[in-house]
Each structure stands twice: as structure tokens, then as C-alpha cells.
């Protein structure tokens, strides 16, 4: 459903992505593994419109969304859970979640989705009135993820879900993501290490200095620990 | 008379306070949402005021009709300003420079335009509601009461809008974390336009309601603009609550200074107060933005 | 007049060094030629019918250019969004006016106090203000403008003159000479002021201070990390800017034998802003070129009256948004790109073009 062809992108004066080709199919879980600074975040930001691509194409369900504005891309169902959460600090948990469903049709519909998210993560409901900036690291990550679920997502792009989290929180986050994947959601996950992605991934890409150097079925690539070690350190 | 002075000072404070709050509200909303210092705010204010005059003197309609007309024209003007002068530079590095100069240029243009269309003579605009009450020798006009009531009502409305409506929450979201807002499919630039239009409507409304209180002339917008700026900064850039509280604090302070020390001391007094605030607490009363200290 | 061999910048020297000696950028011939022209011009012009009028325009140009340069120094280079310029001009003018009129001082003496007081006023506002971010500077300088304006109108009689300003200020005592001669002397005084101001501002811009300012403007965090004290730098610039602005105000007061409260009119502000914005924001020649253009246009379009402020405001707004470097630099770039000859290497937009005198 998501196809990227020959994508080049970067920031003023330098190019970070040098021709990326990848694809994510319906319900597929695709992982992009790469060390920090090699372009994972740039890739996700370019796909979802926060950064303009220099050349190349991004297709969603066959439609060319390369030059689309970020909010329109999100409205189409391509939901980006950004690195660093980017929560709305002065808004409550509940408000953050509701904003996730900005594009939803009515308040009733929004309430329905909110309740569904509360069922998945009951602690969110307990903290509904709390300001987002007062949450702990793990809680913020969960909130960011849940906020993404509030939209009518067709595919989730998640940037380094375990960044800065303690081991327990890390476990919880990946469990949640796994549950979402099992519900049929397509995933494009950018991550720095392969430790927790086992149950999530159908296919894996290896990203090195802005280029995809390997691609393969998850079972194969993830088991080759020697390769991963030499590659990811 | 001791009592008269006190009542005068208090009523003046409440009246000024409502006005300042109203003017500051628009400014602070725009700054909060997009970090834009709108120096054309005063210009929009007199657009509202002169529209009211025009409605009454040229269209010969009752002043009540001037309210929606003034608000509409002011909001439209603000929207045009957004499209022509602000939108083209959003996201560019020279945004601060460009918008500062552009809004001041526009402000002076409006002043000149108004001078040409109407003439430099002072204009008198009739109040929406006439009559007054006398309390211990102090004239409390009905229009003044209307201004206070409207101001408080608008603050309440804006508060409800920002907290309970989709668009209002989107405005808050955009002001807090712009990229994330985009990712939630909130159209950021259009939201900016909405905020500017709302701010314009507020300024226009203030213009219509306040015009009976002073002699309207082409440079009438400058002073309210400065006052609004002072209140906004005093209350904290971007804070709605701040605009309300600061409006009343400064209004009452200025009123007391005027009554007990004389009109000449009003502006210097407020000036001193704001300098004090900037030294002690540069963020203002409720400010959330960072203020760099060198 | 001989033209020295090297016209362009010597390649091995660092930027600040070359700029510190402006005569190395422009050929000695050009500067000498302009100077000579400037000295001789008034004598030539007073012989013409409209000559006197042209000299008056030149005087006006000199003074406006000084104020415009001063404002550009802090806004364009320093990134300080101050709107106190007009008020500082007024402080200078009023200072010398009051000293000369109420205390009977010789204008040549009282005018010396104009820049001093203006600088003092600037430091007074600058101390609390310049530590803070842009928005606050805008507010406080606007408030200062308003305060000064109100004080000038409603203050004690010897200042406010009943609300109109000072109307009976003695002019410069230049001896009992004819109108033409007097005009020529006034012209020279103005030219000297302009020359000194321009020179000092040039030196400042190309001095380590100026380099520090540009560094701060372009990348504050880096500059601060290199130990540049932003506050001190800004304060110095602000003071220099106020000094010359006050001096110009003082000159104009004695030149016009009075100073009216109309100096605070917003139309004056937009004039100055237009000069900077049209000529080139943050460039050295910008405000000078801008002053010339605005004054020239104003004369050419003298019939439009009130429409002038309207047009200026809109033009300034549009230029700020669509040609932020300034109208003149943008037009020049368009010309060079599409119509002009191959550009010479290492020639900056600010360098005096050796083929066009006194640009």
C-alpha cells in the first residue's frame, strides 16, 4: 500500500537520503534498521510530508502523495508517530488523544474512538485530566502511540519507539505495537536495534548512510546475528 | 470628594481593564499561535471604528448594525493581511523581520487611507446604548457597561472555544507543537489564518464599541496598539488568562494614577510598571514562552 | 586623478581588514571624485534657478541619510527592532533648541549637546531593553516614542511651545551673508555631519564590533559561545545610532530654526523605514541609496499629497515580504542575472562600483 521510489531528501546544503526504494504491503510489518544519524527520521519525515523530498516518489494506495502537505497525508491515513513524541505539552492526556482524531467526523465518533483507546490502555483514562508534560517518559510514549491510534490509520509509521525508555517501558511499548500489528495494521517501524522487533516484522531493510543496503524477510535477517552485530554494533 | 475619586478610579479601572483585555486578547492569541507580533492590530481597530462611523453617517443605519458590519469588515481585512503579507513568509527565516516591517507599513497605510477617505477631522460615533447612571457623582455610561459586559463575555467565549471546540483545540495544538499538529491532519497555515481572522474580529469589535469614547481620527489606532502590547506582555505572551488579568491590573493601575496623580502620569506610570515586570519576571504573569536573558 | 592599480579586494587579507580602510575598496579616484563634487556642487548650483532648491534637497538628503544609516545600523545589522529613532531625533533637536532659545546659547555650542543627550536617552532605554528578546524591544521603544511625543506636546511651555513644538530657535550664526552664501555654509555643515557619520558607521560595520554584530545576527548561539557579549555589543551600536540621530536632529532644528511636533508623525517613520527597506536592509549603501530614492521620488511625485504615506506603507510592506533584501539589491540582482554583463568575481553588492561615481 505504501511505495517509495528513488527518494532523495535532506536539509539545507546536504542530502541525507540518497535514493530510497521500499514498500509496505497491507497488514505488513516492515522494519527499517539503522544506526543513529543515518536517515531513519529523515525518511519518515519525508514520507509524511514534514520534509520536502528533493526527487523521488511516495505512493500510497497508488496515489502520488510526494508533494502533499503533511496534514493531508495524515488525513489519508498515513499516521506518523514521531521521534520524541511531540505531544502537546499544555494539553491534557484526553485532549492530546482527541487531537489525534481531529480528522474524525463527529464528536460522537471521537468519543467512540477515545473509549476504544481507553480499553486498550486503561491507565490513560485514569490520567485523562493530567497535562501531557507531567507524564513520565514511558507514559508519554504510550500516549504518543495512542494518539496515533485515534486517527483512522491505514498505516502507522513509528520512529524509534524505545528511544530513551527504561527496559520495562520498552517492553510495554513493543507489546502494544505487537498487539496493534496483530489487529491487522500495516507498520513501518524505524529502529536502531533489532532486539524487540521479532514478533512485529515481516520484512527488514537495513539503512546505512542514507541508502538501503539490504532487504529480506525478517526471519532470515534477524537471525543473522553476526550480520546485525557488524552492522549495528 | 474622596468617595467620588475612589469610584471614578475603580470604574475607570474596570472600563479600561475590559478594553485593554479585549485588545490584548487578539494580540496574544496571534502571538501564541504563530509567534507573530501583529503591529497592524491598531489599524484593524480603527478599521472597525471607522466602519462604525461610516455605517452611521453614510449608510444612515442604526449603530447597532455597525456591530456585525464592523466585525466582518475587520475580520476580512485581517484575513487579507494574512493571505497577502503573512502567509508568503511563514516558515522562512526572515519571518520576524518581514512581518514586523510589513505590519507596521500596513498600519501606517491604513492610517493614511482613512485620512484620505474620511478627512482628518475628529469623528463622533454614537454609542450603541445611550444613557448613563450617576453614582456618587461619577458618570457610569451604559455604553461603558456594555463594553465591560462584552469584554467579559468574549473572554468566556474564547475560553470555551479554545477548550471545547475542535478548531479551538487545534489552535492550541498548533501553538504548542506545530509539527505534531500537522501530523494530526490539522491544516496549520489555515489555522493561522483562522486565528488572525478571529483576532481581527476582536479588534474590530473593540473599535466599534470604543469609538464613542474618544474623538476618532486617523492616528487613533496607535495608542490602543501600544496599550494592548503592554498588556499582552505584562500578562504573558500567548496567555489568554494573562490578557484578562493583566488588562484589569493595568487598567486599574492606570485609572488610579490618572485620578490621583493626573492624566500626564498615566502613560509614564504604566511604562514604569512594565519595565519593572520585565526586570522581575520577563515572562509576564502567566507567560509560557521562553524569554532570553543576555 | 590617478587610479591605483588594485581595485578589487586583496585576496589574502581577511574581510575586516580591507573594510577598515574603505579607500582600498573603492578606487581612490572615486572617493576623491565624489568628495570634490560634493565640495564644488553648491557653488555651481546656487548659480542655477532651481539651484537653491536642489541644495536644500541635498541638505535634506544628507540628514535623512544619517538617520536612515543609524537606524539601519541597529535594525538591519544589529537585529534590534527599535522604533525609538524618531524620538531620539526629537530629543537631539529639542535639546539644542531649548538650550539655544531658552538659555540663549550659541547654536554651535548647544548642538554639541544634542547627540550627547540623545545617546544618554538611548542608554537609558537600552539598559533594560536590550537584554530582552525582539518583541520586548519593539514594545518598549514604541512606548518611548509615544512618551516622548506626549511630553513634547503637553510638557512645560518652554518645551512644548503650546503643543506645536519649538518655533523660534535661532539658526546657526554664520555671519551677515547673503542667502546663497548662507545656504552654502549650511550645506557644508550638513555634508560634514553626513561624512563623519557615514565614515564612522562604515568603520563600525567593518570593525571587529561589526563582525561580531553580524555573527550575532546570523547565528546567535554560535556567536555567544565564542564569547561575544550580545548585550554590550547591542548597547554600543544603540549608542552610536542615537548619537548621530541626535546630531541630525540638532542640525535640522537650527537649519529650520525650529522643530515641530510633527516630527513624531508616523509618516516620518515610514519615510525612514522606506529608505532602509528600499535601499537594502542591512547593507551599508542601502540606506544612503534609499534616502536618495525616497527623497527623489517624493519630489517627483509631489502632487500626490496624502497618498504618499499610503503608498509608502504599502510599498514597504510588500517589499518586506517579497523582496526582503531590499528593493534596490533585488532589482540589481535581477538586472545582473538577466541583463547585465558577466559578474566580476568577489565583488560584493556593497562595494562602490568603480564605474559609477557616488552611487
Tell me the number of helical segments of chain A per DSSP (H or I, 4 or more residues long): 9
Structural class of chain A: alpha/beta
Number of strands of chain A: 10
Q: What spatial form of chain C do the alpha-carbon principal axes imply?
A: globular
> What is the number of strand segments of chain C?
2
The CATH homologous superfamily of chain A:
P-loop containing nucleotide triphosphate hydrolases
Distance between the termini of chain A: 32 Å
Secondary structure layout plus pairing:
The complex is a heterotrimer of chains A (233), B (294) and C (359).
Chain A lengths: L1 E10 L2 E11 L4 E5 L6 H8 L7 E6 L2 E2 L5 H6 L2 E4 L11 H8 L6 H14 L1 H5 L10 H14 L4 E5 L7 H16 L3 E6 L11 E6 L2 E7 H6 L1 H8 L1
Chain B lengths: L1 H33 L6 H17 L5 H24 L8 H23 L14 E4 L2 E4 H23 L1 H11 L1 H6 L4 H23 L11 H14 L4 H22 L4 H15 L14
Helix pairs in contact in B: 1-5, 1-8, 1-9, 1-10, 2-3, 2-4, 2-8, 2-9, 3-8, 5-6, 5-8, 6-8, 9-10, 10-11
Chain C lengths: L14 H6 L7 H18 L5 H27 L7 H17 L5 H23 L4 H21 L2 H4 L4 E2 L12 H28 L1 H11 L1 H6 L4 H26 L3 E2 L5 H14 L6 H15 L6 H16 L4 H12 L21
Antiparallel strand pairs in C: 1-2
Brief synopsis:
Chain B is mainly alpha-helical and 294 residues long.
Description:
The complex is a heterotrimer of chains A (233), B (294) and C (359). Chain A is of the alpha/beta class and 233 residues long. Chain A has one domain: P-loop containing nucleotide triphosphate hydrolases (Rossmann fold, 3-Layer(aba) Sandwich). Chain A is built from 9 helices and 10 strands. In chain A, the strands form 2 sheets. Chain A has a 6-stranded mixed β-sheet, with helices on both faces. In chain A, helix 3 (93-100) packs parallel to helix 6 and helix 6 (137-150) packs parallel to helix 7 (167-182). The longest helix of chain A has 16 residues, at 167-182. Chain A starts with a strand and ends with a helix. The relative contact order of chain A is 0.19. By secondary structure, chain B is mainly α. Chain B has one domain: ABC transporter involved in vitamin B12 uptake, BtuC (Orthogonal Bundle). In chain B, 72% of the residues lie in helices and 3% in strands. Chain B has helices spanning 2-34, 41-57, 63-86, 95-117, 142-164, 166-176, 178-183, 188-210, 222-235, 240-261, 266-280; strands spanning 132-135, 138-141. In chain B, strands 1-2 form a two-stranded antiparallel ribbon. Chain B is globular, with a radius of gyration of 19 Å. The N and C termini of chain B lie far apart (49 Å). Chain C has 359 residues and is mainly α. Chain C has 2 domains: 25-264, no CATH class; 266-359, no CATH class. A two-stranded antiparallel sheet of chain C has the order 1-2. In chain C, helix 3 crosses helix 12, helix 4 (85-101) runs parallel beside helix 6 (134-154) and helix 8 packs across helix 9 (208-218). The model of chain C is unreliable at 1-24 and 346-359 (pLDDT under 50). Chains in contact: A-B, B-C. Chains B and C meet through helix 4, helix 9 and helix 11 of B and helix 6, helix 12 and helix 14 of C.
